[in-house]
Write a structure and sequence with these properties.
- There is one protein chain.
- This protein starts with a helix and ends in an 11-residue tail after the last helix.
- The protein has helices at residues 3-18, 21-27, 32-55, 59-64, 67-90, 93-100, 103-115, 121-138, 147-168, 178-194, 202-225, 232-239, 241-254, 260-280.
- By secondary structure, the chain is mostly helical.
- The model is unreliable at 284-291 (pLDDT under 50).
- The chain crosses the membrane at residues 7-29, 35-53, 65-87, 93-114, 121-139, 145-166, 178-199, 205-223, 235-254, 260-279.
- Residues 6-138, 148-274 form the EamA domain.
- This is DMT family transporter.
- Keywords: Membrane, Transmembrane, Transmembrane helix.
């Protein structure tokens, strides 16, 4: 298995693990500030447990080797988290998802500007087709919203794309341990914002533990390792599958059937990703080169 295929496998597996995110959030009924706070605290613990299990007694070195770039990744991941949560508060969910669908394009532009990294034409085409598919999925929910909410959603897209691009700028260094630091940043800022912490009910706490202590740390650890092997634009492109898979899970478990337009959009995204995967396995497929 070459590096490109390994990166695709790690990222796709990470996206598959976090795909129940939307479903479980629908089952959790706690105030938004407490949801963000508990999510951050459990994420911090979950990411740290993964680092400790992988590196054992040498786990402090896994943080030190990331350096200032790792701190930057943690800050950008925190920006993405707050932009997503607050964006959903100030504007419609459909607006947020449409704007977040621009993450691969932003990552591609950042990589081209700062890393001088070229992407194959098939990757640009896949980004364009997936943007159309995601747009169809959320078009029914999209509305005017608010300028502030739309700007926050754009902030989230830039934060996520910037995090993956910065991780890509340090070849051979695994930045995934710094997601634990991002959990600390997010928890501290949220606590300063809300001013208190409340214990959720047993059912809500159970869903929070499953999602925030297990699924999100495991999934995003794999996704954050993606830039070791793939351009950041390709990692963010694969993350668009979460929207499709999350919609299907909500349909399956909560009987909320998407519209025919949404189903068509999901089919377009899946077809684009499958086609790109087949082309990537062709003999002519080569890793992106630096200018």
């Amino acid at each position: 298995m070459d590096h490109h295929q390994k990166g695709l496998l790690l990222t796709a597996l990470g996206v598959l693990i976090i795909s129940p995110d939307v479903l479980l959030l629908r089952l959790i009924s706690v105030p938004p500030d407490q949801l963000v706070l508990w999510r951050a605290l459990l994420n911090m613990l979950g990411f740290w447990l993964i680092v400790a299990a992988r590196h054992r007694a040498a786990w402090p070195a896994a943080f030190r080797v990331c350096g200032l770039a790792g701190v930057g990744c943690a800050l950008l991941f925190t920006v993405g988290t707050f932009g997503f949560v607050l964006g959903n508060h100030f504007t419609r969910a459909g607006n947020v998802l449409v704007i977040l669908a621009s993450t691969p394009l932003i990552a591609a532009l950042l990589s081209r500007l700062f890393l001088h990294e070229r992407l194959p034409l098939r990757t640009w085409l896949a980004i364009g087709v997936c943007l159309c598919g995601i747009g169809l999925i959320v078009l029914d929910d999209a509305g005017e919203g608010s300028l502030l909410g739309n700007l926050l959603a754009l902030m989230s897209a830039v934060g996520l794309a910037g995090n993956l691009t910065l991780a890509r700028s340090k070849p051979g260094i695994d930045m995934s341990p710094m997601l634990a630091l991002s959990g600390l940043f997010t928890a501290a800022l949220t606590l300063a914002w809300s001013g208190h912490i409340m214990l959720p009910g047993p059912v809500d706490l159970g869903w929070l533990v499953l999602l925030c202590l297990v699924l999100i740390p495991a999934g995003f650890t794999l996704i954050q390792r993606g830039p070791l092997y793939l351009p950041s634009a390709e990692v963010s492109l694969l993350m668009l599958l979460e929207t499709v898979l999350g919609t299907l899970l909500v349909w399956l478990f909560l009987s909320e059937r998407p519209s025919n337009q949404g189903l068509l959009g999901g089919a377009i995204v899946l077809l684009a990703m499958i086609t790109k995967s087949v082309l990537d396995r062709r003999p002519f497929a080569a890793a992106p080169v630096r200018a």
